[in-house]
Amino acid sequence: MPLEYYALAMIVAFFVLVMTGIPVGFVVAFVGFVFGFIGFDGWLFELLPSRIYGVVSNYTLLAIPLFVFMGVMLERSKIAERMLDVIGHLCGGLPGGMALAVIIVGVLLGAATGIVGAAIVTLTLMALPTLVRRGYKKTVACGTICAAGTLGQIIPPSLVLLVLADIMNLSVGSLFAAALVPGLLLAGMYLAYLLVLAFFFSADVPAIDEQERAAVSKRELGKDFAKVVVPPLLLIFAVLGSIIGGVAAPTEAASVGAVGALLLTIVSGRMSLPVLSETVKTSLRISCMIFFVLIASQVFALAFRGLDGEFLIEAMFEWVPGGMYGTLIFMLLLIFFLGFFLEWIQISYIAVPLFLPFLASQGDMSMVWVAILIAMNLQTSFLTPPFGWSLLFMKGVAPPGITTGDIYKGAIPFVLIQILALALIIVFPDVVLWLPAVVGW
């Protein structure tokens, strides 16, 4: 039997086993080993130790646990909760002001955590009961929180961008610079949608009650802004600015971010042994999951390439009409649907490498642009009913009065906005490539 048939069987076996509920890391390694031994009696895996060593000795990947620690510390210490309260009061005089505050805090959380699950759970617990209590329509409240929490997929220092930089052999700084404008553009489109909603349907997004606003003086609000919002902002700018500006490597900047988050928690008076313990345990758990999938994917990739899987993918692309753009849209659609069933880390390490050789052979296609399209596409799949992970995260911690239908209906307008944003950066690549060119990446 031709080797390409074994490669096709590998993909089928992978999806069948994933659907049974077996953890993906184990499935990836198992399928890789089984088909590697069937096709080559195992001698192919003599190359495996050097590939695994290349992963664990990659200095840039050390930024992953450091950024995870930074984000989890800011979330566990309740600093994000205070930020939402302060920004909400600043926007509170406007209809939809609290929803605008949720998006703004989502941008800051995205820049601080890069972890979608943590951001969604944090914003749901902090904001959903408050929005509903203040008279917001449930669907609007749910959709706003899901969309804001998912911004961490695209706004640097996103873990998605770090992983894609490693997989696609790109500079982390160039991806961070490339993602900044699309991420802020998407957040701006969310804000514009909410402002339109406030103008035409103000009853769905009422302003904060005047008495509640009057209870906090402008002077107190200014002091709270300086104490609660400015320090995390400065930390985020220091971390991102040092990477994008080429002053520090991603790992060095991530270590500054981790120490900065620790100091912010101490200064705010929120540091305690349970907070530190929970932060370390959660950071370790998330980091181990990422690195286990990363190492397991080396087994799968080695067997798949040995079985001429690359030629299978190349032949598949030849059937797709529309040339370079047809191929790109086909890949984005496939990743979008995979997002219904798989976590972003699994898609990144399993699906993206399958397409990479063909995409790299298209000389006039910027791989930085492709990486941002993939990141934005993964973000869209997180919000899409019925299996979007952000929706499931929210349902897991939402108050009893919130139904699955409320969450699904609320997410749909934001999914359409994300698709529009994705279309804009496909049609206008300079939205992605402008800032990297300006800063010299």
TrEMBL record:
Residue intervals of the TRAP C4-dicarboxylate transport system permease DctM subunit domain: 11-430
GO CC aspect terms: plasma membrane
Alphabetized UniProt keyword annotations: Cell inner membrane, Cell membrane, Membrane, Transmembrane, Transmembrane helix, Transport
Bilayer disposition of the protein: Multi-pass membrane protein
Ranges that cross the membrane: 7-40, 52-74, 86-109, 115-132, 139-164, 176-201, 228-249, 255-276, 288-307, 327-356, 368-392, 412-435
Single Gene Ontology MF annotation: transmembrane transporter activity
InterPro entries referenced in this protein's UniProt entry, alphabetically: DctM (IPR010656), TRAP_DctM (IPR004681)
Keyword Transmembrane helix attached: yes
Primary location class: membrane
Family: Belongs to the TRAP transporter large permease family.
Role of this protein: Part of the tripartite ATP-independent periplasmic (TRAP) transport system.
Protein name as annotated: TRAP transporter large permease protein
Organism: Halomonas heilongjiangensis
